[in-house]
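We now fix the convention by which a protein and its fold are recorded. The integers have meaning only within a learned vocabulary of local backbone shapes. The record below shows the convention in full.
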Amino acid sequence: QVQLVESGGGLVQAGGSLRLSCATSGRTFSTLRLGWFRQAPGKEREFVAAITRSDSTFYADSVKGRFTVSRDNAKNTAYLQMNNLKAADTAVYYCAGGVTTLTRYWGQGTQVTVSS
């Protein structure tokens, strides 16, 4: 079993930045694929970014060039640095992870609100 706990959400003005953290426990962190998803009100949950065990990264087109996903194996934590935030980025952000399946485990989510 893997536990994922997000933090770092909040209210920010358009053009601002936030860094989300995803602290993990319960399994060797280095074995996990990790990712970020988000869900806006009335919309389906969507993929945002992911990072593999070997630090390869993947992004949704809507966040490329603005968001950066990273991981710190020493701290058992993954991060999502979000720059130049837009109102359309407002959503609950979820951390997900797994060994063979990225979405095997989920965090509880953290709210990000961008005011325009």
